Amino acid sequence: MTTHDSQEPLGDLGPTVARFRDALHHRVDAHLEAHPQSGVPRVGRDGIRRAPRRWVLAAAVMTLAIAVGMGIGWPPVLAFTRNVILESFFKGIGQTAGRRSPVAGPGGQAGAAVARSEFEEASVRACDPDNLPALPAGARGGGPNSFYMTPGRTYALCMTPAALIRTAYGFGPGEFPRLDGQRGLAIDRVYGLGSERNAVRVRGGPDWVRNERYTIEAVAADGANAAVMQGPMLRALLEDRFRLKAHVETEDVPEFHLVIAPGGAKIKGGACEKLPPPTAGAPAQFGSQSADAVRQGAAPFCGLSMKTNGANQVVIGGAVPLSALGDSLSGALGNAQVIDRTGLADVFNFVFEFAWDEGQVGIGPHEPAAPIGPPRASAVFAAIEQQLGLRLEPVRGAREFVVIDAIERPRPN
Amino acid sequence: MPTTGSAALIAMSAENQASELEDVDRLVQQHRARVLRFIFASVRDMDVAETLTQDCFWKAHRARQSFRGDCSVQTWLMRIAVNLVRDDARRRRFRFWETVRSTRIDERHDWADPGLSPEDRLSLNEQVAAVWRATATLSHKQHTVFLLRFVEDMEIGEIAQSTGLTANAVHVNLHRAIRAIRIRLGGS
Predict the structure, then answer these.
(1) What is the dihedral of CA A256, A261, A262, A264, to 10 degrees?
(2) How far is B8 from chain A (nearest CA, A)?
(3) How do strand A390-406 and strand A202-203 relate by DSSP bridges?
(4) Is the pLDDT of residue B92 over 70?
(5) Which chain A residues touch B182 with a CB distance below 8 Å?
(6) What are B24-38's pLDDT values in tens digits?
């Protein structure tokens, strides 16, 4: 074995290595001077942090084209779409997140965060309203109002406090059952959760609760799952940083019962094309599914997808329960709850197309523009009876709302 | 008694180091540049380096109770950083596009002090870029010990503690790293 001196002889390399050393010091010092506050990554270790380069996109598109052409199928397409959304999401997080600091919680003790189901460390930072992160083309998730969790980490990108409160209390879109039968938001899915500006589930509080946006990056102890992070941990974070005090009230409000029309239901079950669970908030994944093809007998994708067709909203169901159809109609009915009272426990395939009220914006990707726009469909009440043999009956029912008692703008991290 | 005095000094030193770990802001302020520099030189991507640097301090803060004081805080932080870089390298094997892109970006970077003349900057940039490319061909261990030794000026014993290698293994890896870089730069 060769022995070496403690000072390895660089010899003629000495000056060059010294310049290399100085250059590295200069490079990092310049970076630290430009980023004096953080030293902070702002982004988790999920691997997707930067916007894709053009050649990556081109390569991905070519790969997808080859994969689809060879009959490999759609999963690569879904993975690609998901990555674009994640790229956009983390680019936004990188632009807006701040430095994390320990979460003290209502009790003021940071050390026992794990035992109290609280995040251990979090960053809460206001988003510049004039410089919000861009939304990836063709998707609802990945831009402002997006929410994403990985095991032990939670990210909210430029969300309003109202939407955060709604999410923390389990009244967000994630309250709907997922395709895997579970409720709540899932790990590793980017969700577009809206702004809650119309006070659908959160009442009271100052105007800024629905107008200002904040980016949150929070770290939990190992093993924290989605339900705990989305619920108790997020609530504790809001109570700590925003000094949130809120309670849940039950009100008697208008809602709708979905029942079978007098002529009988016109829906039936059937096969559906199985796909991996869609990335929530990314309806572009379903953009290729033709409503006409499904009407003519093609198997729809499993699950519920929504797209716009001119002034019409198209809902395509593949082996879904009618409760899911009811959930999808809530937006067209003033955000009123739609409860399935058909008594039909099976799952069904259907295509349902109805016209939005004037001025309302549809959900999902637009169909390609036609020289002459598609004819305006019937309003939702008539359309659902004509097309599906179902009826929406207006009733009143109890519904829970979060009422803000007190809230403050967040303290600095 | 002398032994008691030494024990007290050691205990006091460990206590001081433990309290240093309690103050995260101060810890980051004192060691951020060094940790970031090492990680950046290892992963060659400033975004990733920033992320791993924060993870390094976060891990240190979480594991502060397990710090036994048998090495300096700086050495301990570098040990965490070395592990983070190694883990990141494992993950990166499946992310070829990031490797290619970040290398291209950093090769374009102007390394030199803007105060230098254009000719000096060009010359310096070429030399630095050559070493930068040469170090990219080293094995992970060689790269790590090279950076710790010649960029961070750490002693062999400290490098051994940071990397988990024996002192002799550090010597061997350093020797091979220098030889590989010399060959890459056209020396003999």
Answers:
(1) -150
(2) 29
(3) parallel
(4) no
(5) 11-13
(6) 777 888 888 899 999
Which residue do the tokens 């992160």 mark?
A: A133
Angle between helices A14-34 and B118-136 (to 10 degrees): 100
Distances (CA, A) of B166 to A15, B155, B173: 28, 13, 11
Least confidently predicted of A85-99, A225-239, A251-265: A85-99
Scanning the structure block, which residue is given the tokens 């205990």?
A: B11
Q: What gap in Å lies between CA A233 and CA A217, rounded to an integer?
A: 12
Strand partners, A392: A258
Element containing residue A247 per DSSP (H, E): strand A245-260
ipTM attached to this prediction = 0.81
> Which of B58, B128, B187 is nearest residue A13 as measured by Cβ atoms?
B187
The position carrying tokens 């572009």 is A284
Written as one string, the DSSP assignment of A255-297 is EEEEEE-TT----B----B--PPP-TT-GGGGTT--HHHHHTT
Between these two residues, A44 and A102, which has the higher pLDDT value? A102
Answer yes or no: are the C-beta atoms of B44 and B129 closer than 8 Å: no
For A36-77, how does the pLDDT look when each residue is reduced to its tens digit (9 = 90+)?
654 333 333 333 233 334 444 555 555 555 554 544 444 444
For A50, which of B47, B175, B178 is closest by C-beta distance? B47
Contacts of residue A366, Cβ cutoff 8 Å, sequence gap at least 6: A307, A308, A309
Interchain CB distance below 8 Å, B175 and A219: no
Interface list for B 116-145 with A (CB within 8 A): 124, 127-128, 130-132
Give me the mean pLDDT over the B176-186 stretch: 87
Tens-digit pLDDT profile for residues A120-161:
888 898 988 877 777 665 455 567 888 888 878 888 988 999
